[in-house]
Structures are given as structure tokens and as C-alpha cells.
Automatic annotation (TrEMBL):
Keyword flag Oxidoreductase: yes
GO cellular component terms, semicolon-separated: cytosol
Identification of the protein by name: Aldo/keto reductase
Domain NADP-dependent oxidoreductase as annotated: residue spans: 17-320
Keywords: Oxidoreductase
One GO MF term attached to the UniProt entry: oxidoreductase activity
Lineage: Bacteria, Bacillati, Actinomycetota, Actinomycetes, Micromonosporales
Length: 337
């Protein structure tokens, strides 16, 4: 098993991270608790250690499921969660203020059934809270032993720089990681964000490496997402943001890229998912790839893809056809309640 240090920290993490957005207790959760336990067991048995969740996933029940799944193997796990998303209707029930983060951390610790979180991440930027306030309270969490390291998610390059400078001015721990969407159909972070992460010592955790399923061939050009799929769930959410996100994902250019991935998979005798994951796993700037399997079988296939190496010609072709691709200007991803 190959591990990498996370940014400028000494924390060593596996090349695969287990994303748990699908885990939940509600009847609509794609992955019920029993299957989630099987996935976590298989992931850890394979030697991987980074498990990522968030307090907004499935209304918080993802954290509950994760906590129970790792309870007897806590020392093996680098446990990551996120805060800052909406947890109620009140004005202080979201964001990165001291008031919200303090409550959010204590609630996550209870749901996860643990005394500490290895990587506590700011889920979304909060333009209404000064970076100094956020970094100061994260530093207090670290000093109290409730958090080992702090990270961020969905930040812009400017937001990363501002947070790192604030931490330096305050003399508190800076961010060690960024979680960002990255795939063959979403390479916009290469322009500014990845260089900033290199210069400011952040490791990068890449989520949605399969382009929310577009790169696997699950969706068809010109057709609505099938009922029961993630994109169908997002398209049914209230408001226009989620529908715009789905429309952007199903753009013709993204299907052109998916067709190239499928051709590469046919030439190599493997799956489109394996090709897309192999491409991203070879990127030096990516510390870990966040996988979001719905079943233990899906996990096995994804892990196989991460261990593959693409022939130089195929890799160059994929680089060329996907160059400068960007998703719509939407922060983060739609989130199920």
C-alpha cells in the first residue's frame, strides 16, 4: 500500500479516500447501514485509511453510520468530516463562525461516537465570517485535542491564500488540505487552485472523479437521467441551482470526453470507470481520490481502477480531449438532505 503525506502535515493517508455521501439511515439512502459496514470493512482490509463524511450528508445520519462502522477499528482510520453547510433554519445554523463551528463540532463528535476528528474541513467558503475568526476557532479545536488537522473544501484560490495568511498572523495551524471536484470533465482547478495548493502546502482530495457518473457511461446524450440515479435525484431538488448543475454535467462536450474514455476502456479490456480513475490517480498534484461507492462491489471495481496505469498514448489522448474543461460556476455539489 502506498501512502502520501497530506500537504505540509505529517499525516499519512491512502491514495483512496472513502466518501460516504451515500450512507444513511433514511429509507431513501442509496447505501443502507449494513452495506455501509461491509464497504468500510473492505476498504480498511485493503489497507486504505482515509474515510470522509460531512454533517450535512443524509441529514447527519452518514456520520452516525460511519461512527458505528469504524467503532472497533478507530485507530486504523484517518477520519475526516466537514462543517459549514446548513443544519437548521436559524441565522447561525450554517457558516464558519465561532458560534456555528463550535456547535457543529460537538454534534459531529457525538454522531461519530469519537473523542477527536483527524481532519476537520470547512465545507464551503463563508463570505460573511472573517478568515481570522474561522482559523482562530479551528486552532482552539486543535489545542483542545478535538481536532488533529484542519482543511477546507470548495475554496477558491484567493480563499485559500486568505485563510493561510490569517493562520500565520494568528500563529495557529493552517489548512493542510483542500477537497475539490476534479475529473476528466472538470479540470478548472488546474489553472489557479492547484498551484496555490502547492505553494501553500495543501494536499488535494479529489471528489467526483467519475464526473458524477457521466464518465462511466451511465447517462446518455440527449436523454433525461434515469429514475433512481444521482442526477435524477439532484434534478428533482427544489430551486434552479441543482437543475443547472445537472444540465451542465450533461453537456455534449462531456459526452464527447466520455466517448473517448469508453474507447480507451474497450482497447484496454476494462471499464470506463477504471480508465477515468486511473487517469486521475496518476496526477502528481492529487493526494487522494475520493470514491463514493454504493456497494462493496462498486468499491472493489473502483480500487482496481486506482491501481491501473494507462499507456502513454491513451493518457495523452485523454489529456488532449479534456483540456480546459470546466463545470458550471456552482459552488460545491447539490446535497441530499
Amino acid at each position: 500500500m502506498t501512502y502520501r503525506t497530506l500537504g505540509h502535515s505529517g499525516l499519512r493517508v491512502s491514495r483512496a479516500a472513502l466518501g460516504t455521501m451515500n450512507f444513511g439511515l433514511d429509507p431513501q439512502a442509496p447505501t443502507p447501514e449494513a452495506e455501509a459496514h461491509r464497504i468500510v470493512g473492505a476498504f480498511l482490509d485493503a489497507g486504505h485509511n482515509l474515510i470522509d463524511t460531512a454533517d450535512v450528508y443524509r441529514g447527519g445520519s452518514s456520520e452516525e453510520v460511519v461512527g458505528r462502522a469504524i467503532a472497533h477499528r478507530r485507530a486504523e482510520v484517518v477520519l475526516a468530516t466537514k462543517a459549514g453547510g446548513p443544519r437548521g433554519a436559524g441565522p447561525n445554523d450554517r457558516g464558519l463562525s465561532r458560534a456555528h463551528l463550535t456547535r457543529a463540532l460537538d454534534a459531529s463528535l457525538r454522531r461519530l461516537g469519537t473523542d477527536y476528528i483527524d481532519l476537520y474541513q470547512c465545507h464551503l467558503p463563508d463570505p460573511d465570517t472573517p478568515a481570522e475568526e474561522t482559523m482562530a476557532v479551528l486552532g482552539e479545536f486543535v489545542r483542545a485535542g478535538k481536532v488533529r488537522y484542519a482543511g477546507c473544501s470548495n475554496y477558491t484560490a484567493a480563499g485559500i491564500v486568505g485563510a493561510q495568511w490569517a493562520a500565520e498572523r494568528l500563529g495557529v495551524p493552517a489548512f493542510v488540505s483542500l477537497q475539490a471536484g476534479y475529473s476528466l470533465i472538470a479540470r478548472s482547478i488546474e489553472a489557479e487552485i492547484l498551484p496555490v495548493c502547492r505553494s501553500h502546502g495543501l494536499g488535494v482530495l479529489a471528489y467526483s472523479p467519475l464526473g458524477s457518473g457521466v464518465l462511466t457511461g451511465r447517462y446518455r446524450r440527449g436523454a433525461a437521467p434515469e429514475a433512481g440515479s444521482r442526477l435524477a435525484e439532484w434534478a428533482a431538488m427544489p430551486g434552479t441551482m441543482a437543475r443547472s448543475w445537472v444540465a451542465g454535467l450533461l453537456a455534449d462536450r462531456h459526452f464527447d470526453i466520455a466517448d473517448e474514455v469508453a474507447a480507451a476502456a474497450a482497447a484496454l479490456g476494462t471499464t470506463s470507470a477504471a480508465v477515468a480513475l486511473a487517469w486521475i490517480a496518476e496526477r502528481d498534484d492529487i493526494t487522494a481520490v475520493v470514491l463514493g461507492p454504493r456497494s462493496a462491489a462498486h468499491l472493489a471495481g473502483a480500487l482496481d481502477g486506482l491501481h491501473r496505469r494507462l499507456p502513454a498514448g491513451i493518457r495523452a489522448r485523454l489529456d488532449d480531449v479534456s483540456a480546459a474543461t470546466v463545470l458550471p460556476a456552482v459552488t460545491g455539489q447539490p446535497r441530499a438532505a
